[in-house]
């Protein structure tokens, strides 16, 4: 293998490694984004439930709750 072939081989190896690392980084980014989205959805649900609970308390205290 001459120097030109060796350099070409090395460049190909570097390109392949770079693509593999980039793919791994993209997978990690997707996982992090999915985790963040799930966390935000859970937080949103908790806020919604607390707001509904607060509204129910106000309705109970003001006599506006029709369930009583």
UniProtKB/TrEMBL annotation:
<feature type="region of interest" description="Disordered">
    <location>
        <begin position="1"/>
        <end position="68"/>
    </location>
</feature>
<feature type="compositionally biased region" description="Basic and acidic residues">
    <location>
        <begin position="18"/>
        <end position="31"/>
    </location>
</feature>
<feature type="compositionally biased region" description="Polar residues">
    <location>
        <begin position="1"/>
        <end position="17"/>
    </location>
</feature>
<dbReference type="InterPro" id="IPR039624">
    <property type="entry name" value="LEA1/2/D7/KIN2"/>
</dbReference>
<feature type="compositionally biased region" description="Basic and acidic residues">
    <location>
        <begin position="47"/>
        <end position="68"/>
    </location>
</feature>
<protein>
    <submittedName>
        <fullName>Stress-induced protein KIN2-like</fullName>
    </submittedName>
</protein>
<feature type="compositionally biased region" description="Polar residues">
    <location>
        <begin position="36"/>
        <end position="46"/>
    </location>
</feature>
């Amino acid at each position: 293998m001459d120097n030109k072939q060796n350099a070409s081989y090395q460049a190909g190896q570097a390109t392949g490694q770079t693509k593999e690392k980039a793919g791994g980084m993209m997978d990690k980014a997707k996982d992090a984004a999915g985790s963040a989205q799930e966390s935000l959805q859970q937080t949103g649900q908790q806020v919604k439930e607390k707001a509904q609970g607060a509204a129910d308390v106000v309705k109970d205290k003001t006599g506006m709750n029709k369930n009583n």
